[in-house]
Each structure stands twice: as structure tokens, then as C-alpha cells.
Specification:
- The structure holds two protein chains of two kinds.
- Chain A is an alpha/beta fold.
- Helix content of chain A is about 35%, strand content about 25%.
- Chain A is built from 13 helices and 21 strands.
- In chain A, the strands form four sheets. In chain A, strands 9, 13, 15, 16, 17, 18, 19, 20 and 21 form a nine-stranded mixed beta sheet that branches.
- In chain A, α2 runs parallel beside α3 (about 190-200), α4 crosses α5 and α11 packs antiparallel against α12 (about 425-435).
- Chain A is elongated, with a radius of gyration of 25 Å.
- Helix content of chain B is about 35%, strand content about 20%.
- Chain B is built from 17 helices and 26 strands.
- In chain B, β20, α4 (about 265-280) and β21 form a beta-alpha-beta unit.
- The chains are: A alpha/beta, B alpha+beta.
- The interface between A and B is large, with 85 and 78 residues.
């Protein structure tokens, strides 16, 4: 028997309310049929006695109080899953849009997922080589990690994300590698850029794409990352794929959450975002990880554009509190023409400490990256001093720091979008650059490691012998 | 308890409204819906009761039953808490894993303690004994390092009328029967229940007189926290809050550690579980987990349970305090707890105060931190709960409500600094913004146990850092080269203090934990060099000559060279200092 409720009692934004309903569960899915036969999907977000409030995914345009018939499906929001998803393109709510027909579901799962029991988690330790020095050397990506890229409008985060996807390798070259790409509120061009990139890398058959473009309904945007992560978890934990999930752009997602929250009349918190934004983001980011006894892994690289390049804005701020580090892009570096414009100091990988060094990458890696961070932070001090008193007045040591800073940016951070450096190359380059500084300045490294890697004057063959000011 | 039947009226996220009778009391526990989800009454109005549910509410329907349990939210306490990991409402995560696999299921009403495990019980009372609150009636070895002492709960006094034979018992089997004055017989087992929001009583509060030693130089030396005190670690993301909390949980000299992951990352809890099981306590060479309780309510677990988790942790901590142990509770992070309050408050449509937080934020924080303390227990022993709460201020801005209100109730403040973290200076505790109000209370202890030199040395170190901060203002404008020699010396010494003393490498086998005697020795050597060098600069000898001997660089690395057990290596350093000074002095005579 198909029970339908005719008519609505209220319409507001993307919400509809019905009265006199019975036997409806919280979070249940409903299907509203308009008089012309058009169907819309909705989800119960509030129950109050016999009144139910639903959010309509496709928006409420064209719905009146009388022209809709609502049917409650008795199920919560789930999606069809199958290994055949690989190579397919879906919309933000998980429906195929590539014209290849419906997916034959092997199973259906709730898109909200469930929390991984901390006891069942496998602590991530294997490093993913991206071939990008700034990341491999200083903020190493670990399999099962969530490492966002903090960027700004107009910067090259997409190129960087695409390069990571192209070059990501794991030490043991066995396995099944898959990419889940979720676009939330991005421009059509951006989606096309990624598609072309996957194609050029010959990876299209390993990619599942979920596209919610800038013009698509915002309610669907809220579902997009959930669908993507459900697909990723299925591929990872049921089929043993190592899944890299790219979520772009989280800022659009958060703005969709804000829009939706305000249409529900919720009390806003900072900058109008709802108080539960932290929990909401956590319910996405925490879905990265590895599980003991299962082969696959879910690694997340969310991309977000910081509004006004402000890292203390609620979106990057809350993200940083949940994710395991961040890669921060810097506009002034981009303006200097450095690709990838990674700001080394605020970038961080929290899981790096357990995935590098002896037995993982190379024994000197932790010391080297520590020293690079420490020295590069002194470069900033020297630069600000130079801007006050002029470079000529600087002490010799400070001049060396300036020189090191320039060389580090030009040789270490900067690399070609197609260039892939091995870990050895990255580390050796780092040591070479450190030789610009006098040995006594390297206070983070013990004498033995220095003896092994510090060769006086090794930097000269980098071709930075000329004045540091020419950059 | 009433016979009314209650049903669900409405659902809004974790907040459920209930209709039925008028018999539900505030803070009572209820089972909600067909699956029996655990909830707690948070508001009672005529005919409509509001319940916050500790699990995901998807699937609940109006009309489903709500069953009151007739008691406030309480947890089970007894042997088996140690070496275990629980969720925010004290359900054992390992059992949950066995039941529902790697993803956490719903409606699992599991007891906290293992019902099947038997404990080797020694009874400490005999029939005829008079017992009162706090009297020990039984004990059992809970782990190799901790003896579990069962105490008569508060409010019960009378005569022992029966005891079991010593032997092996589970947590449910009766051990002792106590008949109170009214003739009611009370059966005591290894376990008991306690409502989490009610502080456990103690005989009296004692003044704080001993530091919680952590082996972290900047904390033990500059900003100590007393046993029974409260400390806050605020810091922006990436500044090392969790790392600092882990270090404290690993190395502090508390008997019991309760580590509370409140709304934080799942991987961090996994790491804590893994690491604490492998690492050995430096005092007894047993795995740290044997003295640790982990409570994991990760950020994607239900928000109401996050709100409850801090009370769960505190109640467990107090329970062990009442056995006469010194307990340290690490809460990471109290901001997530405050946000849970805000989220639930929003759903209840309460009037928001600052930044959307409820107006009762300050009083809740006060209630929580005031449960810390050093006490004489009902059993007459000394026990303490030290609380160390991490705070995650929005945007790293310490003026936000949670940090500001926390500051009012803690006496030690370790302010983490983003720029120090960027320079990989760890622990990134800023020595200029941090403070400890315990330094005076603890002076007597330091004088008696470390040496009379300790407090004066600390003061001098602290002064040098202050002076450096002042000089830095000038250096930023004109560079360091034109400073007079004695000021250059201050800068150089302060740098040595920062690099060689304050910075501590958590991953270095020797440096991760440093006993107080070694901390004192290091300070003395740094000051010895400073004093000697000052005598040289007074003779107009340029500091660069002394720097050229390399003695500053050498001292900066002594932390890695001298093992904790055998500190004779410091004598070499002292000789080197004297030689360097002598050499420069002679070259200029």
C-alpha cells in the first residue's frame, strides 16, 4: 500500500512542513510528487507531534500548498553502491549523470555513515609519496590521513590537488588505488579541469566523480561529500582499495550548510554559521582512516578557499581543529611565481612524525624537516629586520639566512607541475640548501647526522652563488 | 518511580520531546524508542519533557515508547576501569567492537565492567566490625601496579553482618553485608554506581603543597601545577595541545591517569591506546596503560555524549582519588565540550549569551574545574585530582569566552603560541603569557626536595627571558649588532635557555622526560656560564671571543648528551665552561 499525504501546511526556503502525519521517523526519506508528475526528494529534519518538516533537495520552486503529494519511504537516506561505480559520474545526490544508466546496487548504505570505533582503527603509518618536495619533505602525507589544502580564491590549489592525484605513490607498489572526487559548488571549468587531468593521467577508470556544480541546489551540496565518502568507504573497506578522496571546495559546502541552517531559523554562531558546524565537518573528516584487519584505506585531501585569505575564518579554523594538519598556500609566494606556493611554516602534517624516519623514509628525514622549519622561520625574522634597517646593515649570519630563504623557495619549494622528485632527491636537496648556513646555526640536528649530511659548500652547485637579491 | 507511560512527541537532532505523565525528574536517565537509546532529561514542562539523547536519533518516531530508569545518569565503578577504553557514557569500546564491528552501532546498553572476569579479592572487614563511609571492605590487584580498594559508599554506615570467603569474585557477586541502624541489609560488591554530575564527597580539602612532576622542563621549572590543582592549555590548531597532553599523560608522576578525548580525532585516541600500551612507566617499568583509563568521544560521535564525557571522566578520577591515589585528568579538549553545550542549548532554543554560548557556560566550567582538588578522603587518606584541560580557542584568539572563563577557574595557564610552533619550538608554551599561581605554594616542597638553589635559579632564568623580550623590541628595529656587550650576553644566554632548556624533544629517548635534579643542574650550568661571561664583558672583552670557543653551542646540546640515570656528564660540562672562560680571560690579560 502506498500512503500519500496530499498538500502541505507550510513552505519556506527549501523546507516544507506537513501536518497530520503518522508513523514518520526522524531522518526518513520522502518523495514528493508534483501535479505534473515531477518528483522531488526530501528528508525529515524535524518532528513535532503530528507535524513533520522536510528539506527538499531539489528546492521548492513550483511547489504550492496544494500541488504536492508526499510519500514517506520508511528508509533513511541511503545510496546504491557497487564496484561498478569506478569510472562513473554522479550528481551531488549520488544519481548517475553520465548517461550510462542506473547502477546495479550490490548493497545500499546510509550516507551518514557511522563513527569508526577508535579501538578498531589502525594508526596510519605508511607514507604516500607525492613527488612534491614541499609536501614530502615538510608535511608528509600519510595513508589514512585527512590533510586539507588551505587556499584562496584564484590560487592554484586545483593544480596542486591534480598533481597529488597524478603522482601519489606508496612504497610497496602492489595495490588497488582509487580516487573519489567530490566537487561541491565548483565552476564547470574546474570540474572539467579535473576530468581532463584524470583522463590524461589515464586514471579515469579508477575515478568516481560526484559533481555538484555552483548552479546546482545547495541541499544536494550537503549530501555530496557524504555520498562520496560512503562510496569511498565501500571501495576501501569492502574491496580493499586505497582510496584518495578529493573534496573541493569545502567553503562552498560550509556556505550551503549556513544557508540551510538560516532557512531553518537556527540561532547563528560565528559569522552566521550554525553552532554545529564543527560536529558537521567532523562527521565528514573523521571518515578518513584505516581499520584493523581490512586492507583498504580512506585518505582525504579536502580543498578549501579561505575567505579573504583569513586562516582564522571559521571554515579553515574548524577544519584545522579536526584534520591532521594542513597545507597552506600563500598568495605572496604565488605572486613571486613559485609553484606550488606552499607556505612552509603554517603547513603541518600531524601524522608525519610516525610515518617518516628510520624504516619508513630515511633516518635523517625528521631532523632535516625540523631544521628546515627552524631555519626558514629565522629567514622570516631576518627579512622583517631587513625591511626596517636595510639588507646592507644586516649581520653576516642574517645575510646568509636571506640567501638561504631565497634558495629554499626557488629550489626546494618550487617545482614543475609535471616534475616528480623522489624522496631521496628531496632530502638531499634539503641538506644541500642547509649548507648555505654556517654549521653552528643548525641547532636541531645532532653532530652525527650533521657529519653524515652537512658538506661545506655543497650548495654552490645549485647555481645560487650569485647575489641573493636577483630573485 | 511512577507508572506513567511516556511516548516520543517530537525529534530535533539529539533533542527529543516526550509526552506522558509528570513523573520524570531533571537529569533522570531514560531509554528512548524501540532500540532503547540512552537519554537524559534536561527540561521538564507541564506535559512535555525534553530529553537529550546520547546516540544518533535517526529512525525515532513520535509515539514510540520512552522508558524512565528512575535514576540520574550514573556510571558503574569498580575494578576493570584501568587498562580500558570507554566512550563518553562509559561503554567499553572493545566490547562494542566485538558486538558491532569496526563501526559503532546504536542502542548498545552495555555494562562498563566485564561481568565474567574474576578478581582475586582480599577482605578487610570481619562480621561484627562497624563500618562507615570510606571504610575499606575489600581490595584486589587491578593491574600489576594498582591495587583496587573498595570503600563503603558515602551515606552508608552500620555493622558488618556477613562476609564472603577470600577468593575470586566477579564484580556482581556479594562480598560483604552491612546492616544499618534501621536494620536494612546492604550488599556490597566490587562495584558501585555513582551519578556523574554529582561530585563525590571527601572529608576535607587540603591545601596544595606538592607539584605534579611532569618531566617537562618548562612546566616543572617555570610553570608548575600542584597535585590537586587545575591547569589550562589553550592554543590554536597545530600548536601542540594534544602532544603536550600526551607527554603529560605519559610522564607525570600521578598514580592514575584518566585521559579524556572529548570531541577530538579518532586517530589520536588510537595512537594513545597503542603508545600507552607499549611505553613503560619510568618508575616501575610496567606499561603505562596499567595506570590509565582512556575515554574516547571522538568528534563524530554523538554530541550529547560529548557533553557527558567530561563528567564521566571526572567521576572515574574521583573514584580513584577516594582510594587514596593521586589522579591526573587530561581533558582534550574542553572547547569541544563547551561547543556541545552550545549546540544542545541552541536546540533547546535557550537565549544565547556571548558568541552563541549559553549563559551558564561559566558556571558549568566552574563546577567542572572545582571538582579538582587535594583532599582527605572519607577513608582518611590523602588523594587528589589534578585537571589539565586543553582549550581550542576559535581562530587562536584567547579573548573568546571559553578561554576567558577557563582562566578564571584555573591557576596554571600554559598559553601555546602559533609562532613558536611554526618555528618548531616545542613545547610551544609561551613563557611570556603563561603563568602559574602555584609557585609560592610549592616553594617549600622545592626547597626541601630539590634544593634551596632551585627557586632562585628559576627566578633568574625567568628574569633573563623577560629581559630578552624587552631587548627584542629594540633588536627588531635596529638589529642586534649595536647592542652593548652585556645586553648581547643577555640575548645569547636567553637564546641558550630557549634552545637548550625550554625546547624539549618529545621523540628523543633521553630528552622526552627529565627529572628535576637534572633540570636544576642544567639551569645552574647555564647561569654559571652567564655569570662568568658577565665578568668578562665587564672587562670590555667582546662576547664574540667567548662565542668562538663554541661553549654556547655545546651547552645547547647537553640535554641530549647526559642520561637521566647518570648525571656525572654535567661535571664535564662544568669543566668545559670553566676552561672556555679561563681561555678567553687569559687571552685578554
Amino acid at each position: 500500500m502506498r500512503l500519500e499525504y496530499i498538500g502541505l501546511s507550510e513552505l519556506s526556503g527549501s523546507l516544507i512542513a506537513l501536518e497530520g502525519v503518522e508513523g514518520v521517523a526522524y531522518d526518513e526519506m520522502a518523495e514528493a510528487t508534483l501535479d505534473k508528475g515531477e518528483r522531488r526528494w526530501g528528508r525529515v529534519i524535524l518532528l513535532d507531534g503530528d507535524r513533520a518538516v522536510l528539506q527538499v533537495f531539489e528546492g521548492t520552486r513550483g511547489i504550492s500548498l496544494e500541488n504536492a503529494r508526499t510519500h514517506f519511504t520508511g528508509k533513511s537516506m541511503d545510496m546504491a553502491l557497487s564496484r561498478e561505480m569506478l569510472g562513473r559520474v554522479f550528481d551531488g545526490a549520488g544519481r548517475p549523470i553520465d548517461g550510462l544508466g542506473e547502477l546495479f546496487p550490490e548493497t545500499r548504505r546510509n550516507i551518514n555513515g557511522a563513527a569508526i570505533n577508535p579501538v578498531s582503527r589502525q594508526y596510519p603509518r605508511s607514507c604516500i609519496y607525492t613527488g612534491i618536495s614541499a609536501i614530502d619533505g615538510c608535511a608528509t602525507l600519510i595513508r589514512g590521513q585527512k590533510l586539507p589544502i588551505f587556499s584562496g580564491s584564484g590560487m592554484c590549489h586545483n593544480e596542486l590537488a591534480a598533481q597529488i592525484v597524478r603522482q601519489a605513490r606508496v612504497a610497496e607498489q602492489e595495490e588497488d588505488f582509487a580516487i573519489v572526487f567530490a566537487a561541491m559548488g565548483v565552476k564547470n571549468d574546474t570540474a572539467e579541469f579535473f576530468r581532463r587531468n584524470f583522463e590524461e593521467a589515464g586514471a579515469l577508470q579508477r575515478v568516481v566523480m560526484f559533481l555538484n556544480l555552483a548552479s546546482d541546489p545547495i541541499i544536494e551540496r550537503i549530501l555530496t561529500p557524504r555520498c562520496a565518502l560512503t562510496a569511498a568507504e565501500y571501495l576501501a573497506f569492502d574491496y580493499g582499495y586505497h582510496v584518495l578522496v578529493i573534496l573541493t571546495d569545502m567553503t562552498s559546502y560550509c556556505e550551503a550548510v549556513r544557508e540551510f541552517s538560516s532557512s531553518k531559523g537556527e540561532i547563528p554562531s560565528r559569522k552566521g554559521f550554525p553552532a554545529y558546524l564543527y560536529s558537521d565537518l567532523a562527521s565528514l573528516y573523521e571518515r578518513a582512516g584505516m581499520i584493523q584487519g581490512r586492507k583498504g584505506s580512506v585518505t582525504q585531501v579536502p580543498v578549501l578557499t579561505m575567505p579573504n585569505d583569513d586562516i582564522t575564518h571559521p571554515i579553515p579554523d574548524l577544519t584545522g581543529y579536526i584534520t591532521e594538519g594542513q597545507i597552506v598556500l600563500d598568495r605572496s609566494m604565488e605572486q613571486k611565481g613559485i609553484y606550488p606556493p606552499v607556505a612552509i611554516l603554517p603547513s603541518l602534517s600531524r601524522l608525519m612524525k610516525d610515518g617518516i624516519g628510520e624504516g619508513f623514509t630515511r633516518a635523517d628525514h625528521p631532523d632535516l624537516s625540523n631544521q628546515l622549519f627552524a631555519s626558514y622561520s629565522k629567514v622570516q625574522e631576518a627579512r622583517s629586520l631587513a625591511s626596517v634597517i636595510g639588507e646592507d646593515e644586516l649581520s653576516d649570519t642574517d645575510k646568509r639566512y636571506l640567501q638561504f630563504g631565497e634558495a629554499f623557495e626557488r629550489h626546494f619549494i618550487r617545482q614543475d607541475a609535471g616534475e616528480e622528485r623522489t624522496m631521496e632527491q628531496t632530502l638531499d636537496l634539503g641538506w644541500k640548501l642547509l649548507t648555505i648556513l654556517p654549521r653552528s646555526e643548525l641547532d636541531r640536528v645532532d653532530a652525527k647526522t650533521l657529519d653524515a649530511h652537512y658538506a661545506e659548500g655543497a650548495w654552490e652547485d645549485l647555481g645560487t652563488g650569485e647575489s641573493p637579491r636577483t630573485a | 518511580m511512577t507508572q506513567d507511560s511516556y511516548t516520543i512527541h517530537g525529534v530535533n537532532g539529539p533533542v527529543v520531546t516526550v509526552t506522558g505523565g509528570r513523573g520524570l525528574a531533571m537529569m533522570d536517565m531514560v531509554h528512548v524508542g524501540a532500540e532503547g537509546l540512552i537519554g537524559e532529561v534536561v527540561r521538564v514542562e507541564d506535559g512535555l519533557t525534553t530529553v537529550q539523547v546520547y546516540e544518533d536519533t535517526a529512525g525515532l518516531m513520535p509515539g514510540q515508547p520512552v522508558v524512565p530508569l528512575g535514576a540520574p545518569m550514573s556510571i558503574e565503578l569498580g575494578p576493570g576501569l584501568l587498562h580500558n577504553i570507554f566512550d563518553g557514557i562509559a561503554r567499553p569500546l572493545e566490547v562494542i567492537q566485538a558486538r558491532s564491528g569496526p563501526f559503532i552501532g546504536r542502542g548498545l546498553n552495555l555494562p562498563s565492567l566485564d561481568r565474567a572476569r574474576k578478581w582475586q579479592v582480599t577482605l578487610s572487614v570481619r562480621p561484627g566490625d562497624e563500618v562507615g563511609p570510606g571504610t575499606e571492605y575489600a581490595s584486589c590487584p587491578e593491574t600489576a601496579v594498582i591495587t583496587h580498594r573498595c570503600r563503603v559508599p558515602a551515606g552508608l554506615a552500620g555493622q558488618v553482618t556477613w562476609t564472603a570467603q577470600p577468593g575470586e569474585y566477579t564484580v556482581e557477586e556479594p562480598l560483604v553485608e552491612v546492616t544499618d541502624r534501621r536494620g536494612t541489609v546492604h550488599r556490597l560488591t566490587l562495584s558501585q554506581r555513582w551519578p556523574i554530575r554529582t561530585p563525590r564527597p571527601a572529608a576535607e580539602r587540603l591545601p596544595i603543597s606538592r607539584p605534579l612532576l611532569t618531566g617537562q622542563r618548562i612546566i616543572d621549572t617555570l610553570f608548575p601545577v600542584g597535585k590537586g590543582g587545575a591547569a589550562a592549555i589553550p592554543g590554536p590548531f597545530g600548536a601542540g595541545k594534544t602532544m603536550t597532553q600526551h607527554q603529560l599523560a605519559k610522564w607525570s608522576d600521578a598514580d592514575i591517569i584518566v585521559y579524556l578525548g572529548c570531541g577530538e580525532r579518532g586517530n589520536e585516541m588510537t595512537q594513545a591506546l597503542e603508545e600507552f600500551s607499549q611505553l613503560l612507566d619510568p618508575r616501575n617499568q610496567r606499561p603505562l596503560m596499567e595506570r590509565t583509563i582512556l575515554i574516547a568521544n571522538t568528534s563524530n560521535m554523538p554530541v550529547a555524549a560529548r557533553e557527558a564525557s567530561v563528567y564521566t571522566g571526572m567521576t572515574m578520577a574521583e573514584y580513584y582519588r577516594d582510594m587514596g591515589y593521586h589522579v591526573a585528568l587530561m581533558a582534550d579538549s574542553t572547547s569541544r565540550w563547551a561547543e556541545a553545550l552550545r549546540e544542545i542549548s541552541g536546540r533547546l532554543e535557550e537565549m544565547p549569551a556571548e558568541e552563541g554560548f549559553p549563559a551558564y557556560l561559566a558556571s558549568r566550567l566552574a563546577e567542572f574545574y572545582e571538582r579538582a582538588g587535594c583532599v582527605r578522603t572519607l577513608g582518611g587518606e590523602e588523594g587528589s585530582v589534578t585537571v589539565i584541560g586543553a582549550v581550542s580557542p576559535q581562530g587562536g584568539d584567547f579573548s573568546e569566552p571559553v578561554t576567558q572563563n577557563t582562566k578564571r577557574y584555573v591557576r596554571t595557564f600554559w598559553g601555546l603560541d602559533r609562532s613558536l610552533a611554526y618555528a618548531r619550538h616545542f613545547p610551544s608554551i609561551n613563557w611570556l603569557t603563561s603563568y602559574s599561581e602555584y609557585t609560592n605554594d610549592l616553594k617549600g616542597w622545592y626547597d626541601a626536595n630539590v634544593g634551596a638553589d632551585f627557586v632562585p635559579c628559576r627566578q633568574r632564568i625567568s628574569n633573563l627571558l623577560q629581559e630578552e623580550a624587552k631587548l627584542m623590541e629594540i633588536v627588531k628595529l635596529i638589529g642586534a649588532d649595536i647592542l652593548p656587550e652585556e645586553q648581547k650576553l643577555i640575548m645569547e644566554t636567553a637564546r641558550l635557555i630557549r634552545v637548550g632548556f625550554l625546547q624539549q624533544n618529545a621523540y628523543h629517548a633521553i630528552d622526552t622526560y627529565v627529572p628535576l635534579s637534572k633540570q636544576l643542574r642544567m639551569m645552574e650550568l647555564i647561569l654559571r656560564l652567564y655569570d662568568g661571561a658577565r665578568a668578562l664583558t665587564a672587562r670590555a672583552i667582546p662576547l664574540s671571543q667567548l662565542k668562538a670557543t663554541g661553549i654556547f653551542d655545546q651547552l645547547a646540546k647537553m640535554k641530549y648528551q647526559v642520561p637521566n640515570e647518570d648525571q656525572s656528564g654535567f661535571d664535564d660540562y662544568q669543566r668545559q665552561i670553566d676552561q672556555a672562560l679561563e681561555q678567553v680571560s687569559r687571552a685578554n690579560s
